[in-house]
Amino acid sequence: MIGKLTGIVDAVGEEEAVIDVGGVGYLIHAGARTLSRLSPGASVSVHVETYVREDAFKLFAFLTDAERAWFVRLQSVQGVGARHALAILDAVAPGEIESAAALGDTSAFSRAKGVGPKLAQRIAAELKDKAPPAGRTLGGGAALAASAGSTAPSAPVAPSASAAREAAVSALINLGYGESDARRAAAQALRDLGDEAGEGALIKAALKELAR
User: Fold this and answer.
1) Is the Cβ–Cβ distance between 186 and 202 less than 8 Å?
2) Whose CB has fewer CB within 10 Å in the chain, the N or C terminal residue?
3) Beta bridge partners of 62
4) How far apart are CA 2 and CA 155, in angstroms?
5) 61 forms bridges with which residues in the sheet?
């Protein structure tokens, strides 16, 4: 199974691209957000989810492992296939997916092409109260990093908004709040404060939300 590809972008199409890895051209399928950041001739590292079917062998590629992990998680929802999952990731950033689910914000999922109100409701309902997918790790647990359009080494990955939110959720649960309420409050706090908010600020805002 292929989990990651690093090479040179050979060609970019509307729904797919070719990455040259040591003289072998790999055809990858990707969403519009990923494809828009690929340039022929540029170096790229992509995370891959390999699908093997009786009649097909497909490589779905993403610039971050969080996107790949959500691509898999979204398809655990009944009625959501690969095309729907890619469309959702084009319309909603990974961090916002969790917030939308925790807050029951079906409008976020409805922004995706081909996702109607009923399917959006099902996605929000089935993802609610679930922790974000962990994804793959490398070495001591550092998330695999992706870089596009540059041959320079990737900069260290800063703690993500999702990580800060999970830390806030854990703190709220330790204080005695139920997981569902903790996730809803932390998601609302992150929306109010923005992705740069730290764990402490999120906890304070979430506690205010829970006190209402």
Assistant:
1) yes
2) C
3) 47
4) 24
5) 48
Q: Where are the extended beta strands (E) located within 35-177? A: 43-53, 56-62, 137-138, 142-143
d(Cα 31, Cα 127) in Å, to the nearest integer?
21
CATH class of segment(s) 158-211: mainly alpha
> Who's near 209: CB < 8 A, 6+ residues apart?
184, 185, 188, 189
Please report, for the chain, the start and end positions of each structural domain, with discontinuous segments joined by +.
1-155, 158-211
What CATH number should be reported for the domain whose range is 1-155? Answer: 2.40.50.140
| Cβ neighbour number for residue 6 with a 10 Å cutoff | 13
- Closest residue by Cα to residue 159 from 137, 173, 172, 142: 142
CA 14 to chain centre: 21
Q: What is the pLDDT along the chain (212 residues), one digit of tens a residue?
A: 789 999 999 999 999 999 999 999 999 999 999 999 999 999 999 999 998 877 778 999 999 999 999 999 999 999 999 999 999 999 998 888 888 888 888 999 999 999 999 999 999 999 987 877 877 764 333 333 333 334 333 333 334 777 887 888 888 888 888 878 888 888 888 888 887 788 888 888 889 888 88
Contact assessment for residue 46 and residue 31, using Cβ atoms and an 8 Å cutoff: no
Question: How is residue 74 written in tokens?
Answer: 């979204």
Nearest Cα neighbor of 7 from 185, 170, 146, 196 is 146
Nearest-angstrom CA–CA distance, 44 and 47: 10
